[in-house]
Amino acid sequence: MLVEFDQLPEESRLWIYQSNRSFSDDEIKQISEKLDKFIHDWTAHGKDLLASYKVVYKRFIVIALNQNLNMATGCSIDASVHFIQQLEKEYQVDLMDKMNVSYKQGEYIAYKSLKDFKKMAKDKAVSRNTIVFNNLVNNIAEFNENWEVPAHESWHSRFLK
Q1: What's the first-to-final CA gap in the chain, in angstroms?
Q2: Which structural domain range is residue 38 located in?
Q3: How many CB atoms lie within 10 A of CB 24?
Q4: Are residues 27 and 85 part of one domain?
Q5: Per-residue three-class SS string for the chain
Q6: Contact at 8 Å (CB) between 129 and 90?
């Protein structure tokens, strides 16, 4: 069952899918329509899942699930992964590769392979204060507090000297 993102409790489980490119306004509208339908119909063993989503910075698809009502199951998680894979094919983007890093360069969101990010850190092209996106957050509370953070406050810090 689709609800407003802000109506979900802070302990709601979260999945973040970062795109290797920005979506156009038209693509965001289309993707939002597809997400509306998917989440409206999303179930676990025939029980409705209370969930929502948002598209952030035209690049991140954030799906949240209130597990206080019904928990995600292997089948429901598989369904969401399959849905994201369909978006990848349709829009020719990479949403599932966790070995890439997104970070802010002013108002611009940059996207690099982990290998390139490590090299940039070594070359001091990014600093400990570079704002990175920690896509490993697990719930809405962590998303609100620890998703956009200086690199030294994230797992990215291991690459900074």
Answers
A1: 46
A2: 5-91
A3: 11
A4: yes
A5: CECCHHHCCCCCEEEEEECCCCCCHHHHHHHHHHHHHHHHHCEECCEECEEEEEEECCCEEEEEEECCCCCCCHHHHHHHHHHHHHHHHHHCCCCCCCCEEEEEECCEEEEEEHHHHHHHHHCCCCCCCCEEECCCCCEHHHHHHHCEEEHHHCHHHHHCC
A6: no
pTM of the prediction? 0.94
User: Are 51 and 85 members of one domain?
Assistant: yes
Within this chain, do residues 14 and 81 fall inside the same structural domain, yes or no? yes
pLDDT in tens, 29-78: 999 999 999 999 998 888 899 999 999 999 999 999 999 888 888 899 99
pLDDT at 72: 87
56 and 109 housed in the same domain:
no
Total tally of structural domains belonging to the chain: 2
Q: Are residues 17 and 37 both part of a single domain?
A: yes
